[in-house]
Design brief:
Layout (H helix, E strand, L loop, with lengths): L1 H6 L4 H10 L2 E4 L9 E4 L2 H23 L10 E8 L3 H5 L4 H10 L2 E4 L9 E8 L1 H17 L19 E4 L2 E6 L2 E4 L1 H13 L32
Antiparallel strand pairs: 1-2, 3-5, 4-5, 6-7, 7-8
Helix pairs in contact: 2-3, 3-6, 5-6
Length: 229
């Protein structure tokens, strides 16, 4: 939802951000719960783009609060992804550096203890007002730029796509997308083939014997079912 707002209708919003900031803004593809927004270019252009994205997220929160019964407005929250080897300098000895950044910017900052799945990167969650988040991001970048390149090979974090829920009705397979059930021919064929190959025995009857097999032996087959089903 947040990324859709940043992209805008027909990509107009992100195009405007690119033009006004001068930064390259790349948004990862895929049906994922998270999308990676990569900013590149001169430092000043990156901060300009980051500022525009942060203010856009605040606009979305303000719009959502119009008809909300919540007593207080939630903070703008972002996650920055950096190589795990650079997190030590950001935290500082005994946590002194991260404490300094929290106190000077007023933003909430949390460095994840574990690396993101299938990567050598860790997430830094920052939350607060747009001005505090922007200042916090600047200070984080300064610390990272003061260091040498990340140690070892950096394996970037790539969120995994979410499997759409699947239902079977009337011998047909459907994937659930939002409020709609979309026919899925390939899964339908697989389901029909499985029904033809698997003999189901009515309750109270014994299974037919198979030559060459000991009827006392049992076997198991694994089938993957999406968690949402």
């Amino acid at each position: 939802q947040e990324v859709g707002s940043i992209i805008g209708k027909k990509g107009e919003t992100v195009k405007k951000m690119r033009e006004e900031s001068g930064a390259r803004i790349n948004i990862s593809e895929g049906n994922c719960p998270e999308r990676i927004v990569t900013l590149s270019g001169p430092t000043s252009a990156i901060f300009k783009a980051f500022s525009m994205i942060t203010h856009k997220l605040e606009e979305d929160i303000n719009s959502a609060m119009v008809n909300s019964t919540a007593s207080s407005q939630p903070p703008v929250t972002l996650r920055i992804v950096i190589p795990a080897s650079q997190c030590g300098s950001l935290i500082g000895k005994g946590g002194c550096k991260i404490k300094e950044i929290r106190e000077s910017t007023g933003a909430q900052v949390q460095v994840a203890g574990d690396m993101l799945p299938n990567s050598t990167e860790r997430a830094i969650t920052i939350a607060g007002t747009p001005s505090s988040i922007i200042e916090c991001a600047k200070q984080i970048c300064v610390v990272i730029l003061e260091q040498s390149s990340p140690k070892g090979i950096t394996v970037p974090y790539r969120p995994k796509p979410v499997s759409a829920p699947v239902i079977f009705a009337g011998g047909q397979a459907y994937t659930i997308q939002g409020q709609f059930a979309i026919p899925h021919p390939d899964l339908t064929k697989l389901h029909q083939l499985a029904m033809q190959q698997t003999p189901f025995t009515p309750v109270g009857q014994t299974s037919p014997g198979y030559s060459g097999l000991d009827s006392s032996q049992t076997s198991s087959h694994e089938i993957a079912i999406p968690n949402d089903v």
